[in-house]
Design goal:
This protein is mainly α. The protein has one domain (2-30, 37-137): Up-down Bundle (de novo design (two linked rop proteins)), CATH 1.20.1440. It has helices at 2-29, 45-49, 61-77, 81-106, 111-138, and strands at 55-56, 59-60. A two-stranded antiparallel ribbon has the order 1-2. The longest helix has 28 residues, at 2-29. The protein is elongated and about 55 Å long.
Length: 142
């Protein structure tokens, strides 16, 4: 049953990341394009996409997210729980860092970014509670 949650969440993350990456490419080709997520200066995905924090070593964060969710989908389809848990925890802490950048450095609210942070939070919680369940069943701390 747990793999269903990972597959659904990773699939949703993949779709949102794919849309974000394609939107990022479109914004680069058409700098004046205004997508639905650009509501104001404070609520803008293109402001984030055009910021210095939009890539790591010249690789788009949206592309990295797309790859991450694709890997998570493969891991979930193979039932590889330990790498899924590690990936979920890692993604959660990376999301905290990017949420900090979004709020304090870029000073804009990106609907697409926040959606991915939410997915990563849920993946983290699924993993955390799964670990608690395993610990309680095996009596590791008793």
């Amino acid at each position: 049953m747990i793999m269903t949650e990972y597959i659904l969440l990773s699939g949703l993350g993949f779709v949102i990341s794919l849309y974000t990456y394609l939107l990022e490419l479109k914004v680069k080709r058409m700098p004046h394009y205004k997508p639905f997520c650009d509501i104001s200066d404070k609520i803008s995905c293109t402001k984030v996409m055009k910021s210095n924090y939009a890539s790591i070593f010249y690789i788009s964060n949206a592309l990295l997210a797309l790859i991450f969710y694709a890997v998570m989908l493969v891991l979930a389809s193979q039932g590889m729980i330990i790498p899924l848990i590690i990936g979920s925890f890692g993604a959660f802490f990376v999301s905290l860092f990017y949420a900090y950048l979004l709020y304090f450095k870029i000073k804009s609210f990106c609907i697409l970014c926040i959606s991915l942070y939410g997915i990563n939070l849920i993946l983290f919680l699924v993993s955390f509670f799964y670990l608690l369940l395993i610990v309680s069943q095996r009596g590791v701390f008793s």
